[in-house]
Amino acid sequence: MLACAQIDQKSVERQPPANQLLRQQTVRNRMRIRVNPNLCQGHNRCFSLAPDLFEVDDFGMATAANGGKVPAGMEDQAQLCIDNCPEFAITVVDETA
């Protein structure tokens, strides 16, 4: 008789359902950001962290590059900028509305 290997259920990684993964990927591919010009104080942390996502004018005020569209694969950098803005001037634009 062959011995079967026992699998520890806690060690098995559980994956979300395929439709949930597809939805997450679709939402991530449509991520857009916006810089509120009334809140931006020109700290430029966003530009320092992700220069491909932001532009800075002559006064040091940031705006979202490419109309705010975040290229695929840069969503984590965009979120890092959102989390590091001391004035909370960067937000995600809701694409589902």
Name the overall outline.
globular
Elements, N to C (H/E): HEHEEHE
Helix content: 25-40%
The overall pLDDT average reads 82
Cα-to-Cα separation, first versus last residue: 61 Å
| Secondary-structure-derived class | alpha+beta
Largest sheet: 2 strands, antiparallel
CA radius of gyration? 20 Å
In spatial order, strands of the major sheet run: 1-4
Low-pLDDT runs of 5+ residues are none
Task: Name the beta content range.
Answer: 5-15%
Q: How many runs of DSSP E, i.e. beta strands?
A: 4
Number of alpha- plus pi-helical segments: 3
Describe, in plain words, how this protein is organized in 3D.
With 97 residues, the chain is an alpha+beta fold. 28% of the residues lie in helices and 14% in strands. It is built from three helices and four strands, in the order αβαββαβ. It has helices at 18-29, 45-49, 75-84; strands spanning 32-35, 54-56, 62-64, 90-93. The chain has a two-stranded antiparallel sheet with strand order 1-4. A two-stranded antiparallel sheet has the order 2-3.
